[in-house]
Structure formats: structure tokens, C-alpha cells
Amino acid sequence: MNYLLLRYNKPIFIRLCGELLTRTTESMLALIMIIYVNKMLNGNVIITMLIFGLQPLSD
After folding, report:
1. What does each C-alpha distance from 18 to 3, 9, 14, 25 come to in angstroms?
2. Would you say residue 59 has pLDDT above 90?
3. How far is it, in rounded angstroms, from Cα 38 to Cα 46?
4. Do the Cβ atoms of 31 and 52 come closer than 8 Å?
5. Across residues 2-31, what is the average pLDDT?
6. Where are the beta strands (DSSP E) in the chain?
């Protein structure tokens, strides 16, 4: 473990912790958003999954 800490610079670990926090938060919020959109669309699973599945293509 000590070798790993010495191998990389401090900004790399700051970036790693930031990405870990961001992705964890996004994955928790995605589940809530999927449930909310599914309820707003009256349980239409196909449209809900299309909205969230095609979202990365719009970026």
C-alpha cells in the first residue's frame, strides 16, 4: 500500500477521490430519478428506459 501512495502524485489521489464521490452520488440519484420519471409516465417502462438509455448520446 505504501508503494502505491508513493507511486502517484497528490493531485492524482485528489482526482480519484473526487471522481469516486461524483460517480457514487450520480448512481444514487439515477435510481431516484428513474423511479420518479416512471411514476410520471404512468409506469411506462419502455419510454423510461429509452429516456435514460439514450441520455449519454445527447452529451
Report:
1. 22, 15, 6, 11
2. no
3. 9
4. no
5. 91
6. none
Counting Cα atoms < 13 Å in the Cβ hemisphere of 50 gives 5
Say which residue, 4 or 57, is predicted with more confidence. 57
User: What are the Cα distances from residue 27, in Å, to 1, 8, 41, 58?
Assistant: 28, 27, 21, 18
Q: Under 8 Å CB-to-CB from 42, ≥6 apart: which residues? A: none
pLDDT at 56: 82
With bands split at pLDDT 50, 70 and 90, how would you rate the model's confidence at 3? confident
Q: Distance (Å, rounded) from C-alpha 25 to C-alpha 38?
A: 20
Q: Give the list of residues 6+ apart from residue 44 with CB closer than 8 angstroms, or none.
A: 38
The confidence score (pLDDT) of residue 22 equals 96
